[in-house]
Write a structure and sequence with these properties.
With 371 residues, the protein is mainly beta. 4% of the residues lie in helices and 38% in strands. Strands 1, 11, 12, 14, 20 and 22 form a six-stranded antiparallel beta sheet that branches. Strands 2, 3, 5, 8 and 10 form a five-stranded antiparallel beta sheet that branches. A five-stranded antiparallel beta sheet has the order 4-9-6-7-19, with no helix packed on it. It is globular and about 55 Å long.
């Protein structure tokens, strides 16, 4: 079993001991349709303007950080922010892309921001964004987006450690991309109480492509292997009444491989520019709901380069298209949930998982448990 799934959160133990008789613990509900246990949660991945009209009760702001390649080593640049203690009804993250020097760097590269769980020491990805084609922007350029990160509010207490990853090589002494964070915290009682966060998938920690992703379709390096997108067995404590899966999956690479089981589908530039889908197996049963790995760039703002081409869940100069899925509590059997993510069979044109241009997906998935 992957190490991430054996984390035992203190909240789980407490809840299991104090749950009232008859509270949902798995195995006490019967699904009307065992193939319809996963539903799109209909949450927006990000906003161009803050959707909360009221003033925040507190704000926490980071410095501005210059982005340069941080891909090969295990140690990432990090910083600490201090948050007020106590709960918040809602937490919005204002993520600002900017520039160092004469302007931002030239290319569209992956940026990942992580927050550390002080109980488990696990690093959770709180947001992922792609830098813009920055060659036409000057030193004053910046652009902000708003991301609802309320599900992480229990981690944002006191001194909190953050880390960041940048997968690009385009930073120079004259130009570089940058980012800064501003957390907006709103008073009030949360609509639901978080019990715990369970890491499900994380290509960042064991990627085999060289860029924190999993190679797709390379013989001997199956993305569906147990250590990658294999089946996960999750213990669900008593008292949990709802579950939501937060899944960030973005495609990269320029592979010329094939989908042998899809007649007439010849991909070009897999996986960055190729439309794809994923399916769920819950307790070994294929679900009717499918996830779509593609994103329209029709309304993207003007940049240099191929900014207006549709891509595999991302757009240059924007946060990525995080997807949220509600999993029915009827999926829990005897306190256990079995979940498996599946991609169509693909045959890469490359022999090595870290070949230049190989098709790959960066995948991070966390299961949020509520009562």
């Amino acid at each position: 079993m992957p190490k991430a799934l054996i984390y035992t959160l203190i909240a789980f133990a407490l809840l299991s001991c104090t749950s009232p008789e008859g509270s949902p613990s798995g195995g006490d509900t019967t699904p009307a349709d065992p193939t319809a246990l996963v539903e799109d949660a209909s949450r927006k991945p990000f906003y161009k303007f803050n959707p909360v009209s009221s003033a925040p009760s507190a704000e926490v702001t980071s410095d501005e950080y210059r982005l340069e390649f941080s891909g090969w080593g295990s140690e990432l640049p990090s910083f600490t922010l201090n948050f007020p203690e106590g709960d918040s009804k809602r937490v919005m993250l204002e993520y600002t892309m900017g520039s160092f020097g004469a302007g931002p760097a030239v290319y569209d590269y992956t940026t990942m921001i992580f927050v550390k769980d002080k109980i488990t020491d696990h690093w959770h990805e709180i947001t992922r964004a792609i830098t813009p084609f920055g060659g036409m922007f000057d030193a004053s350029w910046e652009k902000s987006f708003y991301i609802d990160v309320t599900e992480f509010r229990s981690l944002l207490q006191g001194d909190v450690e953050f880390a960041y990853y940048y997968g690009g090589f385009d930073a120079t002494e004259e130009r570089a991309h940058s980012f800064k964070l501003r957390f907006l915290l709103y008073d009030g009682t949360a609509e639901r109480e978080l019990v715990g966060i369970v890491p499900i998938y994380d290509s960042f920690t064991n990627g085999n492509s060289g860029f924190r992703g999993w190679a797709y379709g390379v013989e001997g390096h199956d993305i569906e292997a147990e250590e990658r997108l294999g089946t996960r067995h999750v213990a669900i404590p008593k008292g949990v009444t709802s579950m939501e899966l937060r899944l960030s999956i973005t495609g990269h690479g320029h592979d010329k491989g094939t989908f042998p089981d899809i007649e007439g589908y010849q991909p070009e530039n897999m996986a960055e520019f190729v439309e794809n889908w994923y399916s769920f197996d819950i307790n070994g049963i294929r679900q009717t709901t499918e996830g779509h790995i593609f994103y329209s760039n029709a309304d993207n703002y003007i940049q240099k380069g191929t900014y207006n081409y549709d891509r595999a869940n991302w757009a240059p100069g924007n946060p990525t298209n995080v997807q949220y899925w509600t999993i029915d509590m009827a999926a829990v059997k005897d306190g256990q949930l079995e979940i498996d993510l599946n991609l169509p069979r693909f045959e890469s044109s490359f022999d090595a998982p870290n070949a230049e241009g190989v098709a790959q997906y960066i995948v991070v998935g966390d299961l949020f448990l509520y009562k």
